[in-house]
Amino acid sequence: MKNLIDIKELSINEIEDLIKVAKDIMQAPEKYSEKCKHKKLATLFFEPSTRTRLSFESAMMELGGNVLGFSSAQSSSTAKGESVSDTIRTVGCYCDIIAMRHPKEGAPLVATMKSTVPIINAGDGGHNHPTQTLTDLLTISCEKGRLENLTIGLCGDLKFGRTIHSLITAMVRYENIKFVLISPDELKIPEYIKEEVLEKNNIEYIETNDIEEYMDKLDILYMTRVQKERFFNEEDYIRLKDYYILDKNKLEKAKQDLCIMHPLPRVNEISTEVDDDPRACYFKQVRYGKYIRMALILKLLEIE
Ligand code: CP
User: Fold this and answer.
1) What is the set of domains in the chain, with CATH numbers?
2) Contact criterion met (CB below 8 Å) for 221 and 208
3) Residue 51 annotated as catalytic
4) Is 53 considered catalytic here?
């Protein structure tokens, strides 16, 4: 594997291997502290990020490598009109691997056509976010002890939430996975995900707009924010942004071993009173993200 653009490019065995390496790094980080000595990671972020960019940079540093890059299109020559292709050809002269986020769906795939070094999709528009999915899979594996036999509630902006689209695509390959899709009507999961991913794989799913209706059935509740940056008009965003606010009351019927996840950033969709609940896993999820990205960098650079 040379690049990671879509989670579908990874087989279940490859995901299993990445999870195994990530868990080993967590156990014995010192073994890995010089694995990427003299290697450089470039983070090219044409869209804002806190976790993805900094976790990639932190991951490379913990592997003994170095990092360079930019955190906004405005601070790069994109602002002068440079194309993605030319930017990639240029940056490939300075580094060994690139993590790239771009608002245009498919931009990281286009980048692979011009790049001499591996490209990692760090999020492209409302499309894909494969390293968030790897983070989510490691979180589920560590917190639930399995990736099979799970009822997963996905709540919030299921239309524009790229983390949701990637997670569904990854989870349908595991045994006995059921989804409860919780969203307002306007933010329902796209038809292509229903038809080409859920129905094609005979996955059981229910759609509802009531967050409490199936709460007692869930093993995982994956909350998402309403994606302000993908809305065409502010009024719609304001009307929908606080549609779901998970608080202690709404968790009353939830299982004691529910795992509450969120890719973050959070806006209002999880009340801060939930943060101290032992079932809240979203900050652990942030930490897992660094370890799985370390494993991915090693794999793409073909370092044992
Ligand atoms: N989860 C995630 O992608 O966060 P950032 O947008 O902060 O990178």
Assistant:
1) 7-129+289-300 (3.40.50.1370), 130-286 (3.40.50.1370)
2) no
3) yes
4) no
Residue 129 annotated to the active site: yes
In this prediction, residue 150 carries a pLDDT of: 98
- Decide: residue 12, CB within 10 A, 0-12 exposed, 13-18 middle, 19+ buried: exposed
Ligand 1 pocket: which of 264, 266, 285, 286 to mutate (most atoms within 8 A of CB): 264
DSSP for 117-153, please give it: S-EEEEEETTTB-HHHHHHHHHHHHHHHS-SSSEEEE
pLDDT at residue number 144: 98
Of 44, 52, 58, which is best to mutate to test ligand 1, by the most ligand atoms within 8 angstroms of its C-beta? Answer: 52
pTM, two decimal places: 0.95
* 265 Cβ inside 6 Å of ligand 1: yes
**Residue 199: pLDDT above 90?**
yes
pLDDT digits (tens, 9 = 90+) for 69-82: 999 999 999 999 99
